[in-house]
């Protein structure tokens, strides 16, 4: 079929072929759908693994916390009788032996977490600030500082367990035999000293992570700020307090939260260092829940403790994020206005 169209000059015709789909626009919708669906397709394997590894066991653990699941029902845990909130009531009854032991473990874990996170942040920040200046061997020192973080946890903790041995350990050899700081060799893996031993191992393997994160954050601070502060007569401590720490506030907010969650939930360090039965002074809540579940075979009570721990961590994380976000968004009054208000008052 041919069509004739009138040209600009009379008597001339233009002959062209027309197809049924000439008037239709290009089909872009399928390609757009593919582009929009590609990110979700790429995320699908990670979402499935997250569902299988974390969410499904979490839901099963919550269901188990409402059951009287003991060693008599391990063969088929679904047949365990439903107890409702009895496991939770028993766990928070601090006058009973179960609740009293859980409270003691919780307090020990809080003290251990505060000290470990604080020391990790302090040592990591100090080391990162010292490594900012250029000097010979800086790269080697940075690599050496990251060795505890790069080592596998089990290998590092087992090494420390040998060093803390009473008779032939390196710690007692240095403190007692070489330096003479103690009257007799100390027991580091039992008794009250076990808390110190656990804290030392935790800080030793945790501060390089803080060092790495703070060192990365320091790269974003312009050197011109320090040069201007030095010209104004500011010392090293004033530069750290006025420039370094305020600039690192967003980095430190994330760093402290991550260190808190890792330390509070740490299971590998006390388990490898002390075994299944940790000393009372180093009875972290992770080991306590493990003992309640896999040593006494009371999975219902252990699951209830795990749910309570999860709720506590969610609460602390939510409050921490709320407070830090408010502090970040809070407007600051310039110093000149503050001085004027003080003078007027």
From TrEMBL:
Region ranges (Disordered): 1-30
Similarity annotation: Belongs to the binding-protein-dependent transport system permease family.
Membrane topology: Multi-pass membrane protein
Protein's UniProt keywords contain Amino-acid biosynthesis: no
Listed transmembrane segments: 37-66, 106-131, 143-163, 195-218, 247-264, 303-323
UniProt entry keywords in alphabetical sequence: Cell membrane, Membrane, Transmembrane, Transmembrane helix, Transport
Signal peptide: none
SUPFAM superfamilies: MetI-like
PROSITE patterns, alphabetized: ABC_TM1
Lineage, uppermost ranks: Bacteria, Bacillati, Actinomycetota, Actinomycetes, Kitasatosporales
Database matches in Gene3D superfamilies: MetI-like
Protein name: Sugar ABC transporter permease
Pfam families assigned: BPD_transp_1
InterPro entries: ABC_transporter_permease (IPR051393), MetI-like (IPR000515), MetI-like_sf (IPR035906)
Organism of this sequence: Streptomyces violaceorubidus
Subcellular location: Cell membrane
Domain ABC transmembrane type-1: 106-320
């Amino acid at each position: 079929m041919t069509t004739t169209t009138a040209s600009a000059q009379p008597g001339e015709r233009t002959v062209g072929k027309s197809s049924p789909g000439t008037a239709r626009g290009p089909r872009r919708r399928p390609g757009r759908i593919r582009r929009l669906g590609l990110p979700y397709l790429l995320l699908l394997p990670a979402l499935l693994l997250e569902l299988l590894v974390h969410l499904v066991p979490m839901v099963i653990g919550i269901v188990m916390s409402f059951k009287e699941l003991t060693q008599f029902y391990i063969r088929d845990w679904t047949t365990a009788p439903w107890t409702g909130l009895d496991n939770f009531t028993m766990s928070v009854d601090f006058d009973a032996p179960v609740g009293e032991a859980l409270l003691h473990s919780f307090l020990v874990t809080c003290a251990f977490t505060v000290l470990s996170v604080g020391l990790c942040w302090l040592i990591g920040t100090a080391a990162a600030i010292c490594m900012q200046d250029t000097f010979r061997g800086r790269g080697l020192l940075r690599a050496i500082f990251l060795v505890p973080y790069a080592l596998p946890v089990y290998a590092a903790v087992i090494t420390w367990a040998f060093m803390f041995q009473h008779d032939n350990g390196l710690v007692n050899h240095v403190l007692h035999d070489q330096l003479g700081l103690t009257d007799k060799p100390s027991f580091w893996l039992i008794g009250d000293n076990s808390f110190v031993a656990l804290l030392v191992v935790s800080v030793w393997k945790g501060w390089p992570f803080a060092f790495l994160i703070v060192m990365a954050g320091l790269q974003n601070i312009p050197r011109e700020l320090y040069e201007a502060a030095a010209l104004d007569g500011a010392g090293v401590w004033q530069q750290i307090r006025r420039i370094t720490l305020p600039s690192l506030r967003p980095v430190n907010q994330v760093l402290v939260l991550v260190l808190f969650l890792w330390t509070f939930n740490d299971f590998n360090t006390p388990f490898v260092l002390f075994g299944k039965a940790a000393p009372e002074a180093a009875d972290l809540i992770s080991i306590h829940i493990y003992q309640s579940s896999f040593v006494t075979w009371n999975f219902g009570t252990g699951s209830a403790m795990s749910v309570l721990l999860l709720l506590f961590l969610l609460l602390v994380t939510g409050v921490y994020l709320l407070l830090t976000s408010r502090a970040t968004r809070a407007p600051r009054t310039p110093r000149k206005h503050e001085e004027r208000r003080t003078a007027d008052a």
